[in-house]
Design goal:
Its EC number is 3.4.16.-. One of its GO terms (biological process) is proteolysis. The protein is an alpha/beta fold and about 475 residues long. The chain has 16 helices and 13 strands. It is globular, with a radius of gyration of 21 Å. Bound molecules: 2-acetamido-2-deoxy-beta-D-glucopyranose (NAG) (6 copies).
Length: about 475
């Protein structure tokens, strides 16, 4: 295994310089295939629960003195004049013996930074960078221009209403790394533990945030990370003699939270959005058993293959969006998302001067690491039981969904919510933004579900204004 792993490390660097949707690249699909085949070999082997611990062992806390000042970004290359908020980035060591360190980027609020909440943002994949995708493409304060070297302000950035902390997680993703290469064989459990250790250390580095209201947000496969981390925080808060983290709520976008509904909802969405034929849809419905332990027949594989072929020429993270092609000449427009943005980010973040300004190690930065996904060790079939625990804990639990995403579509979220068996408190209604329907919202007991109309998988990229409106409501704790 070890030799194969090292060979793979080598090989992967050549092959997996990939980004979301580029040439049909789909990080989630790769991992799911692997998980599925593992489950059919050894069912339930990996069902260790991240929070099942009988006794609390304090997490590693390293010396943090002077590191906050060292992490302050004086200026990002190409940054627009008049930038009026503080930015920090750097590494937090989570395991000194292995030499494992996680990279973060903090964008503070221009106004009310000292009272605004602290919000952690996590991208999924597994293997995708929260800095390159989350901050630079979605909700961060800047967008990279088509010249690959200058930045434009994003006027709908989420740091307008919160101090936003982007974490590259786990090690091996983005700028995060480990000096022990076997650490790149990781999974849900280690990811939650490392993220928790990161937070405890980061709060020593930035003690002014220790008692601040804290929220966790993110999307896609962070549908696993967020509930698992939230549960670990709540559990440790009860027993720790270290920092108690003031967790107030979570919001997960286009959330990958349950394997069965992720599949059924996706194929139903393909059918209802005129991507696949009646025959393919019926073939999938009658031949595929997506429940836990359900077997995949040859017929099912055949129909799934046909469905994948049918959607292969569209960007299924935002089904009506244009593709990035040599003929599309990019415009750095916020309202009309430039489909080539990933290329500009890739080039910008691999510029030595940019990596230096970020205090990052000089590395080949990738949007998503295929290696991390390929060796993913553990992922429960569903995290709905964890979400149920969180719903009963009293923190606010929101799911939101861009309704033009085909990857983890709104149908999947609705089917998953049905499985949670909660009851409607505020019936479904359209929420308005600037005289238009921004999306729809339904309030359940202990759970809120919000759609963002006309947004794909990366909600703040495609509908920045509606995305910020939804996010502000979430922080205020009231329905939009
Ligand atoms: C990883 O190794 C390098 C080179 O020895 C060292 O400078 C760095 O501090 C190590 N990283 C961590 C997190 O210990
Ligand atoms: C800053 O906080 C004050 C007091 O809570 C509030 O009135 C004001 O609207 C806030 N400004 C912004 C830009 O959030
Ligand atoms: C926390 O508890 C551990 C034992 O569980 C102990 O070793 C450590 O010194 C304690 N830390 C503080 C700050 O009290
Ligand atoms: C799907 O598989 C599960 C688990 O093996 C089984 O209990 C269920 O009956 C199957 N459903 C159908 C419709 O065959
Ligand atoms: C920007 O970077 C991409 C590669 O990510 C490259 O294809 C493109 O030509 C670059 N654009 C400019 C203006 O240099
Ligand atoms: C909602 O939370 C309360 C306690 O906070 C709990 O008793 C109840 O079972 C929860 N309901 C659901 C559907 O999660």
């Amino acid at each position: 295994m070890k030799i194969a792993f090292h060979l793979f490390v080598h090989f992967s660097l050549l092959v997996f310089v990939s980004c979301y949707g580029g040439n049909g690249y789909d990080p989630l699909e790769n991992v799911l295939k692997i998980q599925r085949s593992r489950r059919s070999i050894s069912n339930h082997e990996n069902n260790e629960d991240v929070t099942v611990q009988n006794s609390y062992t304090p997490v590693y806390v390293g010396p943090q003195d002077g590191l906050k000042e060292a992490d302050k970004i004086s200026e990002l290359p190409g940054q627009p004049a008049g930038t009026n908020f503080d930015q920090y980035s750097g590494y937090v060591t989570v395991d000194p013996n292995h030499g494992r360190a996680l990279f973060y980027y903090l964008a503070e609020s221009p106004v009310n930074s000292s009272t605004n909440p602290l919000v952690l943002w996590l991208n999924g994949g597994p293997g995708c960078s929260s800095f390159g995708n989350g901050a630079m493409m979605e909700l961060g304060p800047f967008r990279v221009n088509p010249d690959n070297t200058t930045l434009s302000p994003n006027k709908y950035a989420w740091n307008n209403v919160a101090n936003v902390l982007f974490l590259e997680s786990p090690a091996g993703v983005g700028f995060s790394y480990s000096n022990t290469s076997t650490d790149y064989q990781t999974g849900d459990i280690q990811t939650a533990k490392d993220s928790y250790t990161f937070l405890v250390n980061w709060l020593e580095r930035f003690p002014e945030y220790k008692t601040r209201d804290f929220y966790i947000t993110g999307e896609s496969y962070a549908g696993h990370y967020i509930p698992q981390l939230a549960q670990l925080i709540l559990q440790n808060n009860e027993i720790t003699n270290q920092t108690v983290i003031n967790l107030k709520g979570i919001a997960i976008g286009n959330a990958y939270i349950d394997d069965e509904t992720a599949n059924t909802g996706m194929f139903d969405y393909f059918w209802s959005h005129a991507i696949i034929s009646d025959e393919i849809h019926e073939g999938i419905v009658s031949n595929c058993n997506f429940t836990e332990g359900g077997t995949k027949t040859v017929e099912c594989d055949e129909y799934e293959g046909q469905a994948k072929a049918a959607k292969s020429n569209i960007f299924f993270y935002d089904i009506y969006a244009p593709l990035c092609s040599s003929s599309s000449n990019g415009t750095p427009s916020i309202s009309e998302f430039d489909p080539c943005t990933e290329n500009y980010i890739y080039s910008y973040l691999n510029t030595p001067a940019v990596q230096q300004s970020l205090h990052a190690k000089p590395i080949q930065w990738e949007s998503c690491s295929g290696l991390i996904g390929l060796f993913w060790k553990d992922a429960p079939f569903t995290v709905l039981p964890v979400i149920q625990d969180l719903m009963a804990s009293g923190i606010s639990v929101w799911l939101y969904s861009g309704d033009t995403d085909g990857r983890v579509p709104v149908t999947s979220s609705r089917y998953a919510i049905n499985k949670l068996q909660t009851s409607v408190k505020t019936p479904w209604y359209p929420w308005m933004y600037q005289g238009e329907v921004g999306g729809y919202v339904v309030g359940y007991q202990n759970l809120t579900f919000v759609t963002i109309r006309g947004a794909g998988h990366f909600v703040p990229s495609y509908q920045p204004a509606r995305g910020l409106a939804f996010f502000s409501s979430f922080l205020e704790g009231k329905l939009p």
